[in-house]
Amino acid sequence: MASILKKIGEAFTFGKPTADFKGMKIPHISTKDIKLVFHIEVKNPNPIPIPLCDIVYKIVINDREFVKGTSPDAGTLHSHDSKVIDIGVDLVFKDIRDTFTDLQPGSMVNYLLRATFLVDIPVFGRFEIPIDHDGEFPMPAIPDIDVDEIDWVDLSFTETKAVAYVKLENLNKFTMKIKTFEYKLYLTDDLISEGMMDPSMGLAEKEVTRLTVPFTFRPKDMGRAIWDIIRGHESGYTLEGKVTVESPFGPIELPFKKGGATTLKKARSTDEETVKEEAEKSAAAAAADVDQTDYYA
């Protein structure tokens, strides 16, 4: 057998296999973690198949080795053939933030992939096929969201129509397009509106936009504190939900929960005295109504 292998080795000159970077995709990304998949093409210029043993890789961030791993048994390279092999790496953003204090949500993370394909061929011995690739990936930040104010348009004891003006700021270092905005809005402890919008608008880095959210609620079904709000007193609110965006890195879901204080104001087209009178009447009716019942990583 040894003599046969020796004759085979003398029959041709061995060409060292090569590896080329073909791309990287992000099949999963959230505010908590990200999955990177690197596509590496390995070529065999020889007339015999070559078994690929292990793939050893590491991710370097800020000149420091952050994560490493091994992918066993990558298959066989057929003679005069090539094969695209995927290297998948899972990263947790909390681990990155704990290791690199200068990298926070909204940052772009520069990385270096260093991978080595190991092959072991009888007669010729063990070979290493190295490849390096550098790039960047995002660490998404939840948008800064606030309710600037709420205007009511049509005030009634049984039904009140209003509009909430929601400020949304893109804290990421990349442009994103808002696809959907899902929300629940609470005043004091009362859920007064929930729904989904599809504004389909683009937001550049640090850009601010204002969403207009119309809604209807029934004051008589809520706590008495709602009438203090209608009279113009400041109210605590909670706005929670999810923003789904398109980014250069694929779709991202950004959950949010924000609390603060806002005011419920009359719309400019509403007569002030009429509004005041209606609010007083509705408040009195609410008091007499027996059915009135007093939210990274």
TrEMBL record:
Gene3D superfamilies: 2.60.40.1820. Residues 19-136, 145-262 form the Water stress and hypersensitive response domain. Pfam families: LEA_2. Residues 263-297 are annotated as: Disordered. InterPro entries: Lea14-like, LEA_2, WHy-dom. Residues 268-281 have a biased composition (Basic and acidic residues). One of its GO terms (cellular component) is cytosol. SMART domains: WHy. GO terms for biological process: response to desiccation. PANTHER family: OS03G0843300 PROTEIN, PTHR31459. Belongs to the LEA type 2 family. This is Water stress and hypersensitive response domain-containing protein. The lineage of its organism: Eukaryota, Viridiplantae, Streptophyta, Charophyceae, Charales.
